[in-house]
Design goal:
Shape: elongated
CATH class of the largest domain: Alpha Beta
Distance between the termini: 31 Å
CATH superfamily of the largest domain: P-loop containing nucleotide triphosphate hydrolases
Number of domains: 3
Bound molecules: guanosine-5'-triphosphate, magnesium ion
Number of strands: 11
Largest sheet: 8 strands, mixed
Strand order of the largest sheet: 6-5-7-4-8-9-10-11
Number of helices: 15
Order of helices and strands: EHEEHHHHHEHEHEHEHEHEHEEHHH
Amino acid sequence: MSVRVFVAANAREGLARVRRELGDDAVVLSTRPHPQGVELLASAYGDLAVPAVNEAPETAGSSRILAELSRLRGLLQNQLAGFAWGAARRRDPVRVALMQTLFAAGFGSALARTLAARLPRGLDNEAAQRWLRQVLIRNLPVQGREADLLARGGRYALVGSTGSGKTTTLAKLAARGVEDHGAAQVALVAADAYRIGAAAQLTVYAELLGVSLHVVEDQAGLARLLPQLATRKLVLIDTAGFAPSDPRTREGQALDAMGVRRLAVIAANQQGAAIEQAMLRFGEGAAASILTKLDEAPQPGAALDSVIRHRLPLAYIAGGQRVPEDLHTPNAAYLVDRALKGGQLATPYALEAEDWPLFAGVEAERAERHAIKVLHGG
Ligand SMILES: Nc1nc2c(ncn2[C@@H]2O[C@H](COP(=O)(O)OP(=O)(O)OP(=O)(O)O)[C@@H](O)[C@H]2O)c(=O)[nH]1
Ligand SMILES: [Mg+2]
């Protein structure tokens, strides 16, 4: 392993030289003050011997050194990340604050970065946050009352992950349908042949509402039934809930061929990744989405993020178990305000000021490399 000494006016310049001469992966072994600025002891990463798995015991000492070097490298990278984060904050504090707001509220990196990149220059913090609110509101594709699917009628199947609230939401929609068109014009279909008691749950709602209920075993049964319901203004079909990864979810596509429009029922109180999976699996090709369990979602930012990115119209929101009360036409401003407020919750998951540099580490490291490249160019 060859160790080289670098003297530079400051640490940044020194690091740039180390990387230029020894490569991006160079390991800085030590730094100390020098009359001309700072002295760095560094080695090319490739110079470090990687011990073979079955090496003799005497190499244990050198692997300890390697582990120590790797630890030092990690420390240094974290420090650099911290510097770069600090620099970014000094350079563009408003943009950084905007991203912090979005991350804190549960919005994802893809959307946060896109919005931060589009933030107009020269806004102060308050104006930037107002801009953010407006942009989110404008981009949340909510369907207003005028586009109410129920009022227009049609055949709709509720699809979604297990327990997302399909049957409960269907009952709420049916109650509205009865208000709009009368009980004789509404039919419910239980197409959930997989779960014991699934049809029974719907039977209770059908009796309460005075609407007819039809139970089908499979897609073929549904295809046979639908023509018999051709005169009904509104047909609501309940489907079995599957995990997004379950191949049976593909049955949803067959509904399209029967002239049935799919409504993706997505619970807002899930992890962002689960919402995204559900959106990909059930939202694809759906006519609209319905967000449920907003009452149990302290941070609905991830759900709004998914709806915004997939541009799937949000037809209804559900905020409770009561049928039919807890179903509403979505209001974009209300939803965005709720999401942003969720970012202010003090939970053990909220990032503290000192966490941000670590959080931003990888990106900061990239920025640092870029800065060094620019230095080279200059
Ligand atoms: N808090 C809350 N609970 C809800 C909401 N919607 C549904 N639930 C409850 O969530 C549970 C599951 O609801 P279901 O309607 O049976 O869900 P599902 O999607 O039909 O479930 P599977 O058919 O098993 O896939 C029930 O206890 C409902 O009362 C909601 O908006 N808020
Ligand atoms: Mg159900």
